[in-house]
Amino acid sequence: MAMVTVEERYEHLEKTIRGYNISADLGQIRAAYEYARECHGSQMRRDGTPYITHPIHVAQIVAEMRLDSESIIAALLHDCIEDTDSSYEDIARMFSPTIADIVDGVTKLTRVKYTTMEEEQMENLRKMLFAMSKDIRVILIKIADRLHNMRTMEYQTPAKQKKKAFETMEIYAPIAHRLGLARMKWELEDLSLKYLDPVAFGEIEKTLAAVTAEHSRFMTEIQEEITSRLADMKIVEPTVYGRVKHPYSIYRKMYLQEKTIDELYDLFAFRVLVNSVSDCYNVLGVIHDIYKPILGRFKDYIATPKPNMYQSLHTTVIGDDGIPFEVQIRTFEMHAIAEYGVAAHWKYKRGLHGEHNEGAYEWIRRLLENQEDTDAEEFIHSLKIDLFADEVFVFTPRGDVVNLPVGSTPIDFAYSIHSVIGNTMAGARVNGRIVGFDYQLNTGDIVEINTSKSARGPSRDWIKLAKSSEARSKIRQWFKRERREENVAQGRAAFESELKHAGLTMSQVTESGVLPGILKQSGFQVLDDMYAAIGYGGYTAIKAVNRIRSEIRQQSRAAAIEKAVQAAAAAKETQAGKPVLPKKVKSEKGIVVEGLSNCLVKFSKCCTPVPGDEIAGFITRGYGVSVHRRDCPNADPERRSPAEQGRWIKVSWSDDLRETYSTALEVVCKDRNNLLVDVSTALSTCKVSVTGLNSHATADGFAIFHITISVTDSVQLEQVMRKIHQISGVMKVNRPAG
Ligand code: MN
Fold first, then answer.
1. Residues 6+ apart with CB under 8 A from 566
2. How confident is the model at residue 546, as a pLDDT?
3. Mean pLDDT, residues 444-457 taken together
4. Which of 306, 410, 481, 641 is the most buried if burial means most Cβ atoms within 10 Å?
5. pLDDT by residue (tens digit) across 123-174?
6. How open is the CA angle 438-443-449, to the nearest 5 degrees?
């Protein structure tokens, strides 16, 4: 390859931008390029090129998605905060706060560490989804960044190659797919496959090269044949081209159908692009006239688009020499959306909030809002289903289209219409025939649900038969409400067997006294509530037992410390009246405990104090000192029991404070659309990290949010509370206590 200078690469970028955006702000774009080049200075990439080539390449990919000037500038600057001395403020001042926000968002995603631990993986995905629901350009640039890194992965160590490839396959490719970025999705997948299964990848590439060489005449002939027939039909300026399919799509087929590459027949595909929808159907007629269509392989995604907005006609036909091939027919506009998805919809607007194409992000919001009753594994599972599965499209008897994950049953269909329909379902018909509840729906099926007032309601098996997370969570809701006793019994049985498995007895657990704390931590009032949750599937017995076991272990460790604390407290009492000698005390977690050093400190969960709050300490039995806010009802001097009076101890904030403190907020609002988006936007503009966000709607039209955030002190916390208060519909922002 000829050497290309950095400047030449930049000029190529500029040319690409001018090609689609005549009003692009080329002055600012050049300023961003020069600023980034200066920031990265003499940094080099592993392949020996100056670092600045990377942001230029990322901007090039972003320009190929035809994004706006702000996106190009942010792409050029995307590694400045992470890798150079440049700061958010610098970028905000020199370019704009919006651009600084985008760069900051990309930086945050870069810092997200990928892990295979499901619990953390969920948190990471949540962060990504939040970033997306705020400004979709953040994730578009991040995907472009990942794409360029994957393209240049050969210079990395094998371990890093595998890790990045796995992460790309698990997270970035599915997100690209869901956003309709087909072109980037397949490139990400092909590049990942290259490192995840190099042998298979090499073999597929070799075969494809051979097939392409062998069939190049066949490809040209088909192309010419179609082109000339379309000319006869007077179809205006069609574009016809052939291609072999992508390595990863072939790999998947080989894997799913357990075939070798020689046994796969549709390695070839042709595309016909035309000007209008009516031409699409005309072309389809012509294709079916020239070649013999394979039955059951025709799909009309124009009439029923995929949820990621993809539209096209697909058909598979057999050529003259018996070679089957697929033909995709679509308009130029549909093609742009097929290749660049949500990016193609992006309008070149300068303004930001409230101008998104709401429909395109609806799934992100739905995904986040459905998470209330699920634990980590379930979340990952449903996310994977929602991202990976191809959908089936079925019809109501009235002809409305309902899309469901592949493998869905009448149960999914019924619950997608309404939970009442699901809960009173007595039978189902598909295309007029009675079917069982386990019947797997196919695209095009007309589904009819018979309901009955005397129906017994869902059975537990339904949770297994249902494919969509929506149906499963609605069924669980029903059990939660209707079958408490049954749930409690089931949950207790599961819990006790798990306990036995862990080598613990119920009396050991009761004696240890850890249960009340664990119940409270998980939001249960009494033990039966936990059993009930296990029974309906909202909580797992394994999780409960694991917590209990680790608490008991910690307790025995803490007992030793408790002894020391008690001894010190006793020493303090005998000293009462005498002046206490000022000791040089070391703080623990930013807390100085009067007269004690090195003692175990924890922040109470009931009132979550942060620096700046007035605080009091309580010497617990076995857990060291628990710190409460002075205004917490649990720390109220009036309510302290006389027997425990001596356990209250003076504590104060030290000067060597930790970075951030976790604290809880409760927000009460009038429920409305987009509330969750507005709340999460407010939180991210405040630059606090959110570690928990739950919302539920009340029957009388209110929504209550429980938010856990990390802040440095009460000043920042008040700032956040003010910001949330400004959101329209918010009535109250509380710090819960007691
Ligand atoms: Mn980068």
1. 619
2. 87
3. 85
4. 410
5. 556 556 655 556 778 888 999 999 999 999 998 999 999 989 988 887 788 7
6. 50
- Region(s) of the chain under CATH 3.10.20.30: 363-482
- State in words which class domain 363-482 has: alpha beta
Query: 201-349, superfamily in CATH?
Result: Beta Polymerase, domain 2 (3.30.460.10)
Task: Tell me which residue has tokens 């097929």.
Answer: 338
Residues with Cβ within 8 Å of 420's Cβ and at least 6 positions away in sequence, in order, are 451
Contacts of 152 (CB under 8 A, 6+ apart): 45, 46, 47, 54
Return d(Cα 105, Cα 78) in angstroms, integer.
Answer: 9
Q: What is the pLDDT of residue 1?
A: 46
Domain boundaries for CATH 3.30.460.10 within the chain: 201-349
Neighbours of ion ligand 1 (CB under 5 A): 79, 145
Ligand 1 centroid, distance to 59 Cα (angstroms) = 10
Cα–Cα distance between 727 and 678 in angstroms, integer? 7
pLDDT at 308: 65
Residue range 177-223, pLDDT digits in tens: 767 788 899 999 999 999 999 998 998 999 888 888 878 888 888 89
pLDDT reported for residue 124: 58
Q: What is the CATH number of domain 6-196?
A: 1.10.3210.10
List the catalytic residue out of 14, 25, 83, 197.
83
Residue type, 293: P
Cα 380 to ligand 1 centre (Å):
26
- pLDDT band at residue 2, thresholds of 50, 70 and 90? low
Distance 319 CA to ligand 1 centre (A): 46
> What would the mean pLDDT of 568-589 be, rounded to a whole number?
54
What does the angle CA 435 – CA 436 – CA 438 come to, to the nearest 5 degrees? 125
CA of 706 to the centre of ligand 1 (A): 34
Helix (H, G, I), strand (E, B) or coil at 21: coil
Q: Which residue has the higher pLDDT, 452 or 580?
A: 452
Mean pLDDT of 40-65: 91
Cα-to-centroid distance, 366 and ligand 1 (Å): 30
Catalytic entry in 14, 25, 82, 528:
82
**Burial degree of 106 (CB within 10 A; 0-12, 13-18, 19+):** buried
The fraction of the chain above a pLDDT of 90, given in percent, is 22
Contact 604, 737 (CB under 8 A): no
- Output the CATH code of domain 661-734: 3.30.70.260
Does 82 participate in catalysis according to the annotation? yes
Distance in Å, CA 119 to ligand 1 centroid:
26
Task: Tell me if residue 262 is catalytic.
Answer: no
CA of 79 to the centre of ligand 1 (A): 5
Tell me, in angstroms, the distance from the centre of ligand 1 to residue 143's CA: 10
For residues 325-334, average pLDDT: 90
Within 233-314, residue ranges assigned H as helices are 247-256, 277-290
For the residues of 135-173, what is the DSSP string, one character each? -HHHHHHHHHHHHHHHHTGGGS-HHHHHHHHHHIIIIIH
Rounded CA gap, 193 and 199, in Å?
10
Q: What is the DSSP letter of 114?
A: P
